[in-house]
């Protein structure tokens, strides 16, 4: 997972931008009446997210688009604000800015695929009051978004939040891999999370790795990378050169992202003397 800077978007200004496109006078009035309450919820979100306690928000019922959520606003009203006024309406420029905010357009959750959608960290199906809160919207690939689903947030399923995780998440090594001496070679990924990270963060890393099926997805990606490395080996003069090549790859990738699948793969291959000395 790659951390991202928080969106530089004022929730109040963006709320007003989105609601400016509502044409139904009654619905527009309901949003105006609930405005402060919704912004108060946003402020609580900004307190809970860095404390890893977003799961403490009470979810609404599954389905039931007419369920009253805030004031006279229904779930359908709040989610319609996202669909009709952010995705398509006056808030579209912010939608586009969020979608293009990730380096190299790579999903910050997995680091594998291209960004294709915005993920509601707290799902709009269960927490519609945050449907257009920029801090709740993370650009992701379709597979990660689908894997996260839209259920109730709990301690056991809440994953990493790219906007709010502590800096030492990126400077502490917790993703690792081993290379198996098989034909073909298989790289397996696992977590070894040091105690320097607090328990809530360790739990979120575990949830993130499990729920996005990253062990499987990374192993598939590593198989393709292995084929490329083995072709490079054909051009190198011997084991020492091959080992140095892997060391350089591991060092460079670890500097970019210590917990990327590539960094873990190169470190595993560097340690596998049977791989580069044959």
From TrEMBL:
One of its GO terms (molecular function) is endonuclease activity. Residues 97-146 form the HNH nuclease domain. It comes from the Bacteria. The keyword Nuclease applies. Gene3D superfamilies: 1.10.30.50. The keyword Nuclease applies. Keywords: Endonuclease, Hydrolase, Nuclease. This is HNH endonuclease. It comes from Comamonas sediminis.
């Amino acid at each position: 997972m790659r951390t991202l800077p928080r969106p530089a978007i004022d929730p109040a200004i963006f709320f007003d931008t989105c609601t400016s496109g509502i044409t139904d006078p009654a619905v527009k009035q309901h949003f105006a009446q609930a405005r402060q309450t919704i912004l108060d919820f946003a402020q609580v979100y900004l307190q809970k997210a860095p404390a890893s306690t977003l799961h403490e928000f009470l979810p609404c019922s599954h389905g039931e688009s007419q369920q009253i959520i805030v004031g006279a606003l229904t779930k359908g009203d709040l989610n319609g604000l996202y669909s009709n006024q952010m995705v398509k309406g006056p808030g579209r420029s912010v939608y586009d800015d969020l979608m293009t905010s990730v380096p190299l357009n790579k999903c910050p959750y997995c680091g594998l695929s291209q960004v294709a959608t915005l993920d509601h960290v707290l799902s709009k199906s269960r927490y519609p009051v945050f449907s257009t809160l920029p801090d709740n919207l993370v650009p992701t690939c379709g597979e990660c978004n689908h894997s996260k689903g839209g259920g109730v947030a709990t301690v056991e399923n809440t994953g990493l939040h790219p906007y709010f995780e502590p800096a030492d998440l990126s400077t502490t090594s917790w993703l690792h891999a081993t290379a198996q001496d098989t034909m073909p070679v298989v790289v397996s990924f696992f977590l070894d999370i040091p105690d320097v990270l607090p328990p809530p963060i360790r739990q979120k890393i575990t949830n993130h790795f499990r729920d996005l099926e990253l062990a499987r997805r990374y192993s598939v990606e590593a198989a393709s990378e292995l084929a490329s490395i083995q072709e490079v080996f054909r051009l190198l003069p011997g084991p020492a050169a091959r080992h140095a090549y892997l060391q350089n790859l591991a060092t460079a990738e670890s500097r970019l992202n210590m917990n990327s699948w590539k960094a873990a793969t190169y470190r595993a291959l560097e340690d596998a003397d049977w791989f580069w000395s044959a």
